[in-house]
Amino acid sequence: MGVHSHWGLQFGRLAPGPRNLITDVPGVQVGHCTLDEGEARTGVTAVLPHSGNIFHQKVPAAVEVFNGFGKSVGLMQVTELGTLETPILLTNTFSVPEASAALITEALAANPEIGTTTGTVNPVVFECNDGPINDIRGRGLRSEHAEAALAAADADFSEGAVGAGRGMRSHGVKGGIGSASRRVAKYTLGVLVLSNHGQPEDLVAGGRPIGPGLAEQLGAPSEAVAEPEQGSIIIILATDAPVSDRQLRRLARRTAVGLGRTGSFMGHGSGEIALAFSTAQTIAHIPPQEPAQLRILGDEQLDPFFLAAAEATEEAVISSLLHAKADTTRNGEPVPSLADLWPSIPNI
């Protein structure tokens, strides 16, 4: 089962992969670059679908925007064409241009024909606002930091306040990077989140409504909605199952089920976006003369994957909170760790 055994939490009934990370999907790698210099407390996280030339060997992909309060780039072409042709970068809101530049630089270096004998490249970058902890106006993150995250990509990676998660907050505590995976027959489905959303009183962990006790512990107001929801969460889903971009969008939609299980209601000022991709087969940039044939599962076979998407998302969100260490805002206000607070949360 998907279990954070140290906390006595269980998330659903499907078995996780060996790492319980998105990188249990064969070929997927994740890398971080964390910037922690003075008031610059931010970073970049890279997700690579495979280690080859992604521009020439694209992967099927789809995007689902649940609430579009965000400044991501590249989503329009993914939605239109159903493919991903660069790695995915996650960062803070004002560092999207630098992250995009890093993806373009990498693609140009590997593909000298881009912009000359073939088209341009579509970089995909997601963001959350880490301004309360990070000096976001200082724009300390540079394209070389994004390049470092790409270079650091590996099957093993850290969760919590690392990479893009360095400056994030969620449900009144420290947020950031979280991940989980599930096995579905001979396939694997994995999820990675960047959590920067939610109110303390709404948090649910493994079916336990710990929010009221957490809010009490934090001294937060007891009203149903203490303040407007202005956070965001980015959800990346990967699978090695042979599915089409249309089916990937259906999978992406089910991540909202897992998000809802943790207490999110997707407020007006919050941005919730999911991107799903499959590594089962690639799509050549230069199409063959003969029609390409893609293998896809029947829609009636997707239910276990829908369940896996919900379970892995739910666990990834809570994992991001339990792995993140305590911090302070730029104004010196404490941003506690859920792991530190856990033993003293009332009625847990």
Automatic annotation (TrEMBL):
Q: Name one Pfam family in it.
A: Peptidase_S58
* Protein name, as recorded: P1 family peptidase
Give the residues annotated as coiled coil: none
Give the source's domain of life in one word: Bacteria
Looking up SUPFAM superfamilies in the UniProt record yields: DmpA/ArgJ-like (SSF56266)
The record's similarity note reads: Belongs to the peptidase S58 family.
Single GO MF annotation: aminopeptidase activity
The record's annotation in InterPro entries points to: ArgJ-like_dom_sf, Peptidase_S58_DmpA
